Amino acid sequence: MAVARSLRRNTTITYFLAALLLLTFLYFFLVDSTSLPSLPQSRQLLKSKDAASNPLSPPSLPFKKQDPNEVPPPPPVVHYRMNNVTTSSQPIENRESVLILTPLAKFYSQYWDNLLALSYPHDLISLGFIIPKGREGNEATRQLQDRITKTQAPSNKKHRFASITILRQDDEPPTAQSESERHALSHQKVRRAAMSRARNSLLFTTLGPTTSWVLWLDADVIETPPSLIQDLASHDKPIIVPNCMQRYWNKDKGAEDVRPYDFNSWQDSPTALGLAEKMGPDEILLEGYAEMATYRSLMAYMGEPTGDAKKIVDLDGVGGTALLVKAEVHRDGAMFPPFPFYHLIETEGFAKMARRLGWKSFGLPNFYVYHYNE
Protein backbone atom coordinates (compact mmCIF):
# COMPACT_ATOMS: atom_id res chain seq x y z
CA MET A 1 0.00 0.00 0.00
CA ALA A 2 1.47 3.34 -0.98
CA VAL A 3 2.23 5.87 1.71
CA ALA A 4 0.65 9.27 1.31
CA ARG A 5 3.00 12.08 0.29
CA SER A 6 2.08 14.24 3.32
CA LEU A 7 2.84 11.37 5.69
CA ARG A 8 6.28 10.79 4.09
CA ARG A 9 7.07 14.49 4.46
CA ASN A 10 6.13 14.48 8.19
CA THR A 11 8.29 11.40 8.80
CA THR A 12 11.32 13.11 7.23
CA ILE A 13 10.86 16.22 9.37
CA THR A 14 10.51 14.07 12.49
CA TYR A 15 13.79 12.24 11.77
CA PHE A 16 15.57 15.52 11.13
CA LEU A 17 14.36 17.09 14.42
CA ALA A 18 15.25 13.94 16.37
CA ALA A 19 18.78 13.96 14.93
CA LEU A 20 19.20 17.67 15.76
CA LEU A 21 18.01 17.08 19.34
CA LEU A 22 20.41 14.15 19.74
CA LEU A 23 23.36 16.23 18.54
CA THR A 24 22.42 19.01 20.98
CA PHE A 25 22.37 16.57 23.92
CA LEU A 26 25.71 15.06 22.88
CA TYR A 27 27.28 18.51 22.69
CA PHE A 28 26.26 19.51 26.21
CA PHE A 29 27.12 16.15 27.79
CA LEU A 30 30.42 15.52 26.02
CA VAL A 31 31.88 19.03 25.80
CA ASP A 32 35.25 19.23 27.53
CA SER A 33 34.83 21.11 30.80
CA THR A 34 38.42 22.32 30.56
CA SER A 35 37.41 24.49 27.63
CA LEU A 36 35.12 26.52 29.93
CA PRO A 37 36.55 29.75 31.39
CA SER A 38 38.19 29.24 34.76
CA LEU A 39 36.26 30.57 37.73
CA PRO A 40 37.80 32.24 40.77
CA GLN A 41 38.49 30.07 43.80
CA SER A 42 37.92 31.13 47.41
CA ARG A 43 41.65 31.38 48.15
CA GLN A 44 42.13 33.70 45.17
CA LEU A 45 39.29 36.01 46.14
CA LEU A 46 40.67 36.58 49.62
CA LYS A 47 43.98 38.09 48.56
CA SER A 48 44.23 41.74 49.59
CA LYS A 49 45.57 42.70 46.17
CA ASP A 50 42.20 41.69 44.72
CA ALA A 51 40.39 44.54 46.44
CA ALA A 52 37.10 45.33 44.77
CA SER A 53 37.07 48.38 42.52
CA ASN A 54 33.30 48.87 42.68
CA PRO A 55 30.90 49.06 45.68
CA LEU A 56 28.69 46.48 43.96
CA SER A 57 31.50 43.92 43.89
CA PRO A 58 31.19 40.66 45.84
CA PRO A 59 30.96 41.13 49.63
CA SER A 60 33.86 38.76 50.19
CA LEU A 61 36.23 41.36 48.75
CA PRO A 62 37.27 44.53 50.58
CA PHE A 63 36.15 47.63 48.70
CA LYS A 64 38.92 50.00 47.65
CA LYS A 65 37.85 53.64 47.62
CA GLN A 66 38.26 55.50 44.35
CA ASP A 67 39.45 58.98 43.60
CA PRO A 68 36.28 61.17 43.44
CA ASN A 69 37.48 62.56 40.10
CA GLU A 70 38.03 59.09 38.67
CA VAL A 71 35.28 57.36 36.71
CA PRO A 72 34.76 53.96 38.39
CA PRO A 73 34.76 50.86 36.21
CA PRO A 74 31.48 48.98 35.73
CA PRO A 75 30.54 46.34 38.34
CA PRO A 76 32.19 43.02 37.56
CA VAL A 77 30.34 39.84 36.69
CA VAL A 78 31.81 37.11 38.90
CA HIS A 79 31.08 33.38 38.67
CA TYR A 80 31.39 31.03 41.64
CA ARG A 81 31.52 27.25 41.84
CA MET A 82 29.93 26.75 45.25
CA ASN A 83 31.02 23.10 45.31
CA ASN A 84 34.59 24.35 45.70
CA VAL A 85 33.73 26.01 49.03
CA THR A 86 34.58 23.27 51.52
CA THR A 87 34.02 22.94 55.27
CA SER A 88 36.28 20.24 56.63
CA SER A 89 38.11 19.06 59.72
CA GLN A 90 41.33 20.44 58.19
CA PRO A 91 40.41 24.03 57.37
CA ILE A 92 43.97 25.37 57.14
CA GLU A 93 45.17 22.67 54.78
CA ASN A 94 42.10 23.25 52.57
CA ARG A 95 42.48 27.04 52.72
CA GLU A 96 38.94 27.55 54.05
CA SER A 97 37.93 31.16 54.65
CA VAL A 98 36.51 32.20 58.02
CA LEU A 99 34.23 35.15 58.73
CA ILE A 100 34.45 36.38 62.34
CA LEU A 101 31.36 38.40 63.29
CA THR A 102 31.12 40.55 66.42
CA PRO A 103 28.27 42.75 67.68
CA LEU A 104 30.24 45.46 69.45
CA ALA A 105 28.85 48.01 71.91
CA LYS A 106 32.05 48.56 73.90
CA PHE A 107 35.63 48.09 72.76
CA TYR A 108 37.99 45.96 74.86
CA SER A 109 41.66 46.05 73.90
CA GLN A 110 42.04 42.50 75.26
CA TYR A 111 39.50 41.33 72.69
CA TRP A 112 41.55 42.75 69.82
CA ASP A 113 44.83 41.42 71.25
CA ASN A 114 43.28 37.97 71.50
CA LEU A 115 42.02 38.28 67.92
CA LEU A 116 45.52 39.11 66.68
CA ALA A 117 46.90 36.09 68.57
CA LEU A 118 44.71 33.62 66.65
CA SER A 119 47.00 31.22 64.81
CA TYR A 120 44.61 30.64 61.90
CA PRO A 121 46.11 32.31 58.78
CA HIS A 122 44.90 35.90 58.87
CA ASP A 123 44.75 36.14 55.09
CA LEU A 124 41.87 33.63 55.34
CA ILE A 125 40.01 35.64 58.00
CA SER A 126 37.51 38.42 57.30
CA LEU A 127 36.07 40.47 60.15
CA GLY A 128 32.63 42.01 60.51
CA PHE A 129 31.38 44.37 63.24
CA ILE A 130 28.05 46.00 63.96
CA ILE A 131 28.04 48.93 66.39
CA PRO A 132 25.04 50.85 67.79
CA LYS A 133 24.79 54.60 67.38
CA GLY A 134 25.13 56.94 70.33
CA ARG A 135 28.02 58.21 72.44
CA GLU A 136 29.28 54.78 73.52
CA GLY A 137 28.96 53.45 70.00
CA ASN A 138 30.92 56.39 68.61
CA GLU A 139 33.70 55.84 71.12
CA ALA A 140 33.79 52.09 70.40
CA THR A 141 34.02 52.85 66.66
CA ARG A 142 36.88 55.27 67.20
CA GLN A 143 38.87 52.80 69.31
CA LEU A 144 38.20 49.97 66.87
CA GLN A 145 39.30 52.03 63.88
CA ASP A 146 42.50 53.04 65.67
CA ARG A 147 43.45 49.39 66.14
CA ILE A 148 42.38 48.49 62.60
CA THR A 149 44.60 51.23 61.15
CA LYS A 150 47.64 49.75 62.89
CA THR A 151 46.76 46.13 62.12
CA GLN A 152 45.96 46.67 58.45
CA ALA A 153 49.03 48.81 57.76
CA PRO A 154 50.95 47.69 54.64
CA SER A 155 54.02 46.95 56.76
CA ASN A 156 52.07 44.64 59.10
CA LYS A 157 51.83 41.59 56.86
CA LYS A 158 51.84 39.11 59.77
CA HIS A 159 48.59 40.24 61.43
CA ARG A 160 46.69 41.84 58.55
CA PHE A 161 43.24 40.38 57.86
CA ALA A 162 41.73 39.73 54.43
CA SER A 163 38.99 42.33 54.89
CA ILE A 164 37.13 44.22 57.62
CA THR A 165 33.55 45.52 57.51
CA ILE A 166 32.04 47.91 60.06
CA LEU A 167 28.28 48.52 60.19
CA ARG A 168 26.58 51.20 62.26
CA GLN A 169 23.08 50.55 63.56
CA ASP A 170 20.26 53.03 63.15
CA ASP A 171 19.26 52.89 66.81
CA GLU A 172 20.82 52.81 70.26
CA PRO A 173 20.86 49.74 72.56
CA PRO A 174 17.45 49.30 74.26
CA THR A 175 19.00 48.90 77.72
CA ALA A 176 22.00 50.19 79.61
CA GLN A 177 25.27 48.41 78.95
CA SER A 178 26.44 47.53 82.47
CA GLU A 179 26.77 43.78 82.98
CA SER A 180 24.16 43.56 85.76
CA GLU A 181 21.55 45.54 83.80
CA ARG A 182 22.19 43.60 80.59
CA HIS A 183 21.35 40.34 82.29
CA ALA A 184 18.28 41.44 84.26
CA LEU A 185 15.33 39.16 83.45
CA SER A 186 13.00 42.09 82.71
CA HIS A 187 15.32 43.31 79.93
CA GLN A 188 15.89 39.99 78.18
CA LYS A 189 13.14 39.83 75.59
CA VAL A 190 13.68 43.38 74.28
CA ARG A 191 17.46 43.18 74.56
CA ARG A 192 17.81 39.80 72.89
CA ALA A 193 15.36 40.71 70.13
CA ALA A 194 17.50 43.77 69.37
CA MET A 195 20.62 41.59 69.47
CA SER A 196 19.01 39.15 67.02
CA ARG A 197 18.28 41.93 64.54
CA ALA A 198 21.86 43.17 64.85
CA ARG A 199 23.26 39.68 64.29
CA ASN A 200 21.05 39.11 61.26
CA SER A 201 21.96 42.48 59.72
CA LEU A 202 25.64 41.73 60.19
CA LEU A 203 25.33 38.20 58.82
CA PHE A 204 23.26 39.03 55.74
CA THR A 205 25.57 41.94 54.84
CA THR A 206 28.93 40.20 55.19
CA LEU A 207 28.39 36.53 54.32
CA GLY A 208 30.09 36.02 50.96
CA PRO A 209 30.02 33.17 48.43
CA THR A 210 33.54 32.10 49.39
CA THR A 211 32.93 31.91 53.16
CA SER A 212 33.35 28.42 54.63
CA TRP A 213 32.90 29.08 58.36
CA VAL A 214 31.29 31.80 60.47
CA LEU A 215 32.70 32.38 63.95
CA TRP A 216 30.45 34.45 66.20
CA LEU A 217 32.70 36.01 68.84
CA ASP A 218 31.38 38.46 71.41
CA ALA A 219 33.33 41.67 71.95
CA ASP A 220 33.81 40.86 75.65
CA VAL A 221 35.37 37.43 75.06
CA ILE A 222 38.97 38.32 75.80
CA GLU A 223 40.76 34.99 76.15
CA THR A 224 40.66 31.94 73.87
CA PRO A 225 43.23 29.39 72.76
CA PRO A 226 45.19 30.74 69.75
CA SER A 227 44.07 27.64 67.85
CA LEU A 228 40.38 28.34 68.57
CA ILE A 229 39.18 28.19 64.95
CA GLN A 230 40.99 25.06 63.85
CA ASP A 231 40.26 23.31 67.18
CA LEU A 232 36.52 23.86 66.81
CA ALA A 233 36.52 23.09 63.09
CA SER A 234 38.45 19.84 63.65
CA HIS A 235 35.22 18.24 64.91
CA ASP A 236 33.60 18.95 61.52
CA LYS A 237 30.21 19.76 63.09
CA PRO A 238 27.66 22.16 61.57
CA ILE A 239 27.29 24.10 64.85
CA ILE A 240 29.71 23.87 67.75
CA VAL A 241 30.23 25.96 70.87
CA PRO A 242 32.95 25.96 73.58
CA ASN A 243 32.27 26.49 77.28
CA CYS A 244 32.39 30.19 78.17
CA MET A 245 33.73 30.92 81.66
CA GLN A 246 34.72 34.02 83.63
CA ARG A 247 37.77 34.64 85.82
CA TYR A 248 37.08 36.42 89.13
CA TRP A 249 38.46 37.00 92.60
CA ASN A 250 37.03 34.42 95.01
CA LYS A 251 36.81 36.12 98.42
CA ASP A 252 36.20 32.83 100.21
CA LYS A 253 39.36 31.28 98.77
CA GLY A 254 41.31 34.52 98.72
CA ALA A 255 42.51 33.67 95.22
CA GLU A 256 41.68 33.90 91.53
CA ASP A 257 38.97 31.48 90.48
CA VAL A 258 36.80 30.57 87.50
CA ARG A 259 33.00 30.42 87.28
CA PRO A 260 30.52 29.57 84.51
CA TYR A 261 29.31 32.51 82.45
CA ASP A 262 27.19 31.45 79.46
CA PHE A 263 24.09 29.43 80.40
CA ASN A 264 22.53 29.41 76.93
CA SER A 265 24.16 26.12 75.88
CA TRP A 266 21.94 23.33 77.17
CA GLN A 267 20.18 20.02 76.68
CA ASP A 268 16.41 20.25 76.95
CA SER A 269 14.35 18.81 79.81
CA PRO A 270 10.75 17.53 80.20
CA THR A 271 10.14 20.44 82.60
CA ALA A 272 11.18 23.05 80.02
CA LEU A 273 9.12 21.37 77.30
CA GLY A 274 6.13 21.29 79.66
CA LEU A 275 6.52 24.99 80.46
CA ALA A 276 6.63 25.81 76.74
CA GLU A 277 3.40 23.93 76.09
CA LYS A 278 1.56 26.17 78.56
CA MET A 279 2.97 29.45 77.22
CA GLY A 280 1.25 31.96 75.01
CA PRO A 281 2.55 32.51 71.47
CA ASP A 282 4.58 35.60 72.41
CA GLU A 283 6.19 34.23 75.58
CA ILE A 284 9.77 32.98 75.71
CA LEU A 285 11.76 30.59 77.89
CA LEU A 286 14.99 31.99 79.33
CA GLU A 287 17.83 30.07 80.90
CA GLY A 288 19.82 30.86 84.04
CA TYR A 289 17.07 32.62 86.05
CA ALA A 290 15.65 31.36 89.36
CA GLU A 291 12.26 32.80 88.45
CA MET A 292 12.07 30.38 85.49
CA ALA A 293 13.36 26.98 86.61
CA THR A 294 13.70 24.76 83.53
CA TYR A 295 15.91 21.99 84.97
CA ARG A 296 17.76 21.73 81.70
CA SER A 297 21.23 20.18 81.64
CA LEU A 298 23.56 23.17 81.28
CA MET A 299 26.89 22.72 79.54
CA ALA A 300 28.28 25.39 81.86
CA TYR A 301 28.24 22.77 84.65
CA MET A 302 29.41 19.80 82.55
CA GLY A 303 33.06 20.83 82.59
CA GLU A 304 35.64 18.67 84.36
CA PRO A 305 38.88 20.18 85.74
CA THR A 306 41.05 17.54 84.05
CA GLY A 307 38.55 16.50 81.38
CA ASP A 308 39.31 15.82 77.73
CA ALA A 309 39.06 19.08 75.76
CA LYS A 310 37.78 17.09 72.77
CA LYS A 311 34.80 15.62 74.63
CA ILE A 312 31.66 16.52 72.69
CA VAL A 313 27.98 16.57 73.71
CA ASP A 314 24.71 17.08 71.86
CA LEU A 315 22.96 20.39 72.54
CA ASP A 316 19.45 21.77 71.99
CA GLY A 317 20.36 25.40 72.71
CA VAL A 318 23.59 27.31 72.14
CA GLY A 319 25.11 30.52 73.39
CA GLY A 320 26.69 33.09 71.12
CA THR A 321 29.75 34.20 73.07
CA ALA A 322 31.90 31.96 70.84
CA LEU A 323 30.00 29.96 68.26
CA LEU A 324 31.39 28.31 65.11
CA VAL A 325 28.87 27.66 62.33
CA LYS A 326 29.33 26.15 58.90
CA ALA A 327 28.39 28.86 56.41
CA GLU A 328 26.04 26.45 54.63
CA VAL A 329 23.88 26.36 57.77
CA HIS A 330 23.27 30.10 57.47
CA ARG A 331 22.86 29.82 53.70
CA ASP A 332 20.21 27.19 54.35
CA GLY A 333 18.15 29.85 56.16
CA ALA A 334 19.11 29.45 59.82
CA MET A 335 19.22 32.90 61.43
CA PHE A 336 18.63 34.45 64.85
CA PRO A 337 14.89 34.89 65.42
CA PRO A 338 14.05 38.27 67.00
CA PHE A 339 10.62 36.81 67.77
CA PRO A 340 9.55 33.78 69.85
CA PHE A 341 10.42 30.70 67.80
CA TYR A 342 9.08 27.68 69.67
CA HIS A 343 9.31 30.00 72.71
CA LEU A 344 13.02 30.58 72.12
CA ILE A 345 14.85 33.68 70.89
CA GLU A 346 18.25 34.77 69.56
CA THR A 347 21.02 32.11 69.78
CA GLU A 348 18.79 29.52 71.46
CA GLY A 349 16.18 30.15 68.78
CA PHE A 350 18.92 29.81 66.16
CA ALA A 351 19.77 26.31 67.42
CA LYS A 352 16.10 25.36 67.26
CA MET A 353 15.70 26.79 63.75
CA ALA A 354 18.84 25.00 62.56
CA ARG A 355 17.52 21.73 64.00
CA ARG A 356 14.26 22.21 62.10
CA LEU A 357 16.38 22.58 58.95
CA GLY A 358 18.23 19.34 59.72
CA TRP A 359 21.40 20.73 61.38
CA LYS A 360 22.39 19.55 64.88
CA SER A 361 24.26 21.55 67.53
CA PHE A 362 27.17 20.35 69.64
CA GLY A 363 29.19 21.59 72.59
CA LEU A 364 32.66 21.11 74.10
CA PRO A 365 32.23 21.21 77.91
CA ASN A 366 35.99 20.99 78.59
CA PHE A 367 37.12 23.50 75.96
CA TYR A 368 37.13 26.96 77.55
CA VAL A 369 36.99 30.57 76.46
CA TYR A 370 36.84 33.46 78.93
CA HIS A 371 34.56 36.48 79.25
CA TYR A 372 35.60 39.89 80.51
CA ASN A 373 34.74 40.56 84.16
CA GLU A 374 33.50 44.09 84.82
UniProtKB/TrEMBL annotation:
It is a single-pass type II membrane protein. Its main location: Golgi. GO terms for biological process: cell wall mannoprotein biosynthetic process; protein N-linked glycosylation. It is found in: Golgi apparatus membrane. One of its GO terms (cellular component) is mannan polymerase complex. Coiled coil: none annotated. The chain crosses the membrane at residues 12-30. Signal peptide: none annotated. This is Mannan polymerase complexes subunit MNN9. It comes from Cryoendolithus antarcticus. The lineage of its organism: Eukaryota, Fungi, Dikarya, Ascomycota, Pezizomycotina.
